[in-house]
């Protein structure tokens, strides 16, 4: 079984589960907090493209939680990103996405694929509510379906009692996979959800209570010494290939309506000399007047459409920057705000910036989700192919008449046509960019 030496290369461990809603985020939050309380230098990352889970994981360290998306990064870039995140740390804990083998196509991009690529073992969380001895069959299947990655141990979640935990431990003996503990069922460990996932961490008023409850649950129920002994070692010394900045002085919208930003992109921009500033559209703030680029990330503008429509300082700031030739890029929620109007869930139409000609609606909900292969059309920022994802419930009510920004296909190669829009130095689309395509 794998083990790491904190005095040498960083250790690594991937947290996976048979399915979503198994308690991965809360467990990872508690585990990282518990290890930091033991004075381990721990970093945490999120497998896959999600934005909201990393907000909660950030509570454990006080630092940005980076995404490690195997599908979009590819082998070399994934190893390089992981190595950079874990530099000077004892241990990197990676929370996987969905079920362990779930992905866009076959195993490619799954949590299992990520762990295999990084040569790290998997700690399997199993939601044990409503089961006892059957846990052995589930664990045996996940541990033996493929020769790699190694399942180094099991933690049961949503466990009803100590007696329940003992039954689970006994059942797992015949699998040969170590039972490392149990997390008891508790209302204190519940995080509410909304249409794109969990409610954002910044919207919770009792985040300290959640962190404390998660840490106490892990400390009281999990054999941390055995867990540490099971961790693998990150050996890559590669450096990531960085995404170029969209400007030299970049103003970035940041508040609870615009919070879906990948930390690695901002880190790449800073590493290449870009100066970043932040402003809050919901507080009716304009981007700094000396910026040469503005980035409007995704988020939940559909929940705050009325406030944004009345934020005249913000909207006029965008329009003035456009008139002066600043590059303005909107992604998903930011793209919605750059359009003519946004219809909220109640069917009320709210005027937006009007810098692009499309209109969007949250009254007509339709789930759009999936990875995207992106070929940029001629534009002021990108020339090389990109990889990203879409995840939104709103729809294009009117596609507008602007020049398209991207030609897209899904993870299986199906052509999705032209998407997004650009007019002068203003451009945007529903797609979240993760990285350049490998080899681009």
Task: Describe the protein.
By secondary structure, the protein is an alpha/beta fold. The chain has 2 domains: 11-233, 3-Layer(aba) Sandwich (Rossmann fold), CATH 3.40.50.300; 249-436, 3-Layer(aba) Sandwich (Rossmann fold). Helices cover 28% and strands 27% of the residues. The protein contains 12 helices and 25 strands. The chain has helices at residues 24-37, 52-61, 70-86, 111-118, 135-144, 162-172, 207-221, 224-230, 263-271, 305-309, 312-323, 333-338; strands at residues 11-16, 42-47, 66-68, 91-95, 122-127, 151-159, 179-184, 193-194, 197-198, 232-233, 249-253, 275-279, 293-296, 327-331, 341-343, 349-351, 359-361, 368-376, 386-392, 395-398, 406-410, 415-419, 421-423, 426-429, 432-436. Strands 1, 2, 3, 4, 5, 6, 7 and 10 form an 8-stranded mixed sheet that branches. A 6-stranded mixed sheet has the order 12-11-13-14-24-23, with helices on both faces. Strands 22-21-18-19-25 form a 5-stranded antiparallel sheet, with helices on one face. Strand 5, helix 5 (135-144) and strand 6 form a beta-alpha-beta unit. Helix 1 packs parallel to helix 2, helix 1 packs across helix 7 (207-221) and helix 3 packs across helix 4 (111-118). The chain is elongated. The two termini are 38 Å apart.
């Amino acid at each position: 079984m794998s083990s790491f030496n904190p005095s040498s290369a960083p250790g690594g461990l991937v947290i996976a589960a048979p399915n979503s809603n198994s308690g991965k985020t809360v467990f990872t939050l508690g585990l990282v907090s518990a290890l930091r309380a033991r004075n381990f230098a721990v970093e945490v990352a999120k497998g896959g493209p999600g934005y909201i889970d990393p907000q909660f994981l950030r509570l454990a360290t006080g630092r940005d939680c980076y995404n490690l998306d195997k599908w979009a990064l590819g082998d070399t870039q994934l190893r390089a990103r992981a190595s950079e995140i874990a530099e000077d740390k004892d241990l990197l804990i990676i929370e996987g996405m969905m079920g362990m083998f779930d992905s866009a196509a076959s195993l490619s991009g799954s949590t299992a694929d990520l762990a295999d690529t990084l040569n790290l073992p998997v700690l399997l969380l199993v939601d044990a509510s409503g089961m006892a001895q059957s846990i052995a069959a589930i664990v045996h299947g996940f541990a033996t379906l493929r020769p790699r990655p190694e399942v180094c141990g099991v933690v049961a979640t949503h466990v009803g009692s100590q007696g329940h935990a003992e039954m689970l431990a006994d059942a797992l003996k015949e699998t040969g996979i170590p039972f490392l503990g149990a997390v008891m069922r508790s209302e204190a460990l519940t995080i509410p959800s909304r249409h794109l996932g969990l409610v954002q961490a910044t919207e919770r008023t009792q985040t300290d209570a959640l962190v404390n409850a998660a840490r106490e649950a892990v400390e009281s129920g999990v054999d941390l010494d055995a867990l540490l002994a099971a961790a693998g070692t990150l050996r890559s010394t590669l450096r990531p290939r960085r995404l170029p900045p969209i400007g030299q002085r970049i103003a970035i919208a940041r508040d609870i309506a615009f919070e879906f930003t990948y930390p690695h992109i901002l880190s790449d921009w800073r590493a290449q000399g870009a100066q970043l500033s932040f402003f809050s559209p919901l507080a009716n703030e304009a981007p700094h007047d000396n910026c040469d680029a503005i980035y409007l990330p995704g988020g939940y503008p559909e929940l705050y459409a009325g406030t944004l429509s009345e934020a005249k300082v913000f909207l006029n700031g965008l329009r003035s920057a456009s008139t002066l030739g600043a590059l303005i890029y909107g992604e998903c929620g930011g793209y919605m705000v750059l359009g003519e109007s946004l219809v909220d869930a109640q069917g009320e139409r709210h005027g937006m910036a009007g810098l692009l000609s499309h209109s969007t609606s949250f009254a007509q909900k339709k789930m759009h989700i999936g990875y995207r292969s992106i070929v940029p059309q001629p534009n002021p920022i990108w020339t090389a192919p990109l990889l990203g994802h879409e995840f939104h419930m709103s729809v294009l009510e009117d596609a507008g008449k602007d020049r398209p920004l991207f030609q897209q296909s899904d993870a299986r190669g199906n052509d999705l046509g032209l998407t997004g829009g650009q007019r002068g130095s203003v451009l945007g689309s529903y797609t979240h960019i993760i990285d350049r395509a490998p080899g681009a």
